[in-house]
Amino acid sequence: MKFLKYLVIFLVVIIVIIAILSFVAPTDVKVSRSITIDAPRETVWEYVNSLEDMHQWSPWAEKDPDMKLEYRGTEGKVGSVYSWDGDPETVGKGEQEITSIQAPSRIESELRFLTPYESKADAYVQLDKTGSGSTRVTYGFESVSPRPMNVLNLFMNMDEMVGPDFEAAMSNLKKLVESGGSSGETQSEMAFR
């Protein structure tokens, strides 16, 4: 009987601690990386203006070249969707839908991760002109962690976890644009429906 009493007290203390931490821990998660590309904004835009074009410089495509891909909707238009199903350890399963296009400066999308865990995030690619005629590209995402799940943000640093992938994406995009690689060619066989 004493054991049960101590167990209940222990569980209540844990619940109270989690509740307190949920009001201390951040709910917003933001990760972004930027790079300057030696090309005009309109040229860079050709490599970021659709989900199919983005796939060319995606570091996740390199991590699992065998993942199954599907495109739905009209390429480069709001409402088009890119879905993937790959190795659960590297890319998992999910989809990305274009939600806003402000040519030639910004494209926004909603990421919906289905496995290995369910979550949503808002992603974007922002293109800004520089004084030298090059383009500053910022690629990032923003997400909200509901309470009490936001307590995990105290122990996980999303910037450290996925920041290197965003850096790789920016590096891939820079190499592709500056080498004059063809936008519209993809790394895998894909069909846009």
User: Sheet bearing the most strands, described?
Assistant: 7 strands, antiparallel
Number of strands: 7
Helix content: 25-40%
**In DSSP terms, counting alpha (H) and pi (I) runs of 4 or more, how many helices?**
5
Order of helices and strands: HEHHHEEEEEEH
Could you name the ranges where pLDDT drops below 50 across 5 or more consecutive residues? 184-193
| Average pLDDT figure | 86
Notable traits:
193 residues; alpha+beta; 7-stranded antiparallel sheet; 5 helices; 31% helix; disordered C terminus
Overall description:
- This protein has helices at residues 2-24, 41-45, 51-56, 59-63, 158-178; strands at 28-37, 68-72, 81-85, 93-102, 106-115, 119-129, 135-144.
- Residues 184-193 have low confidence and may be disordered.
- β6 and β7 form a beta hairpin.
- It is elongated, with a radius of gyration of 20 Å.
- It is of the alpha+beta class and 193 residues long.
- The chain has five helices and seven strands.
- The chain starts with a helix and ends in a 15-residue tail after the last helix.
Per-chain topology:
Elements (H helix, E strand, L loop, with lengths): L1 H23 L3 E10 L3 H5 L5 H6 L2 H5 L4 E5 L8 E5 L7 E10 L3 E10 L3 E11 L5 E10 L13 H21 L15
Antiparallel strand pairs: 1-7, 2-3, 3-4, 4-5, 5-6, 6-7
Brief account:
This protein is an alpha+beta fold and 193 residues long.
